[in-house]
Amino acid sequence: MSTQHALLISLIEKPSSGYDLARRFDKSIGYFWHATHQQIYRELGRMADHGWIAADEQGNSVSNGEPAEADGVEKKSRKKVYRVLPAGRDELARWVLAPGLGLDQREEILVKLRADAAIGPLGLADEMARLIALHEARLETFLKIEQKDFAVGQADRTRQIHHALLRRGIRYEEDWVQWAKDLLPLLAAPAASDNA
Fold this sequence. Notes:
The chain is α+β, with helices and mostly antiparallel strands. 59% of the residues lie in helices and 12% in strands. It has 2 domains: 3-97, Winged helix-like DNA-binding domain superfamily/Winged helix DNA-binding domain (Arc Repressor Mutant, subunit A), CATH 1.10.10; 108-188. Helix 1 (3-13) crosses helix 4 and helix 2 (18-26) crosses helix 3 (37-50). The longest helix has 32 residues, at 157-188.
């Protein structure tokens, strides 16, 4: 998956300014595909160069407590609102139907654990406890979203898919926390001789 495709999805759901898109991205797709705000702005430029999106400039009157007109000239700020063009929809459909690269699971702690196993106890218990707390916080966030947004009966296909994605996140976080808690005592224990 590329950040560009994730952004195309977000813009299809709702045309947005770069700032609004970055904020929405953090609260939705950002839970499973990370992108910095700087990266989002850079990718928007590339996507526009590809002809996948276009930006419409919208003027807004400045309202910071001062009169909108100074010296007879109305102050305006220009905000670019990005929308997906037909070529962008075509690219997204092409990407969706292309075979995936496989099971690409990059999780740094797994490599660190492999190093701990290879060269002896490195003191990963504190790091694992920190990660458990982060995953528990994300799980709590997901459960709150589910309770707030999906508590009532049947919904249309789009909402059902969104709920299924959220349920995947909930299950992942529940499993991750349980796995890490099961591993934590081993990381906190002193090394035993493998030759005993």
